[in-house]
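step: validate -> pass
step: tokenize input -> pass
step: predict -> running
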Amino acid sequence: MIKKVLLFIVLAGIGFFAACTKEQTEDDYSKQDADTIKAYIAKKGYTAQSLLSGLYYTILTPGDNNHPKVTDQISVNYKGFRTDGFVFEANTYGNPSSFYLQGRVKGWQEGLPLIGIGGKIRLYIPSALGYGSRGLYNNGGIPVVYPNTPIFFDIELIDIFPQN
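step: predict -> pass
step: emit ->
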């Protein structure tokens, strides 16, 4: 019985320290992501605003007064790219893609409601609001977005299909 209690205490202690280490790691990526995003914005000469979540954005065209909600389906032209310019995801302009906003990364869910139909926005998304520690891989299993890496999107909001 004593062995079981000691084993429980040891395992609980390991779990506690592992949780602390994980939280510290996530904090480290938040700062690293913010530094990477700020450096990219400065290098390109862009002007951006930020939200408390760590999302940075530049509204290129505000659009009209119809803004999407997270539960809405949206039609967009978009391009997703890394700091090195590699485009990992895009649609063909002139052929908009439709998505439920809630099915996209958190950075889209926070950023798209900032513009209306006809609006254009550039999102600078920290890894916690993007693909996080899992990254994004192509069909061959090759990473196109490495784990814990900020990502960027240029998005034009074409239309909103409200969902009830």
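step: describe -> The longest strand covers residues 151-161.
step: cleanup -> pass
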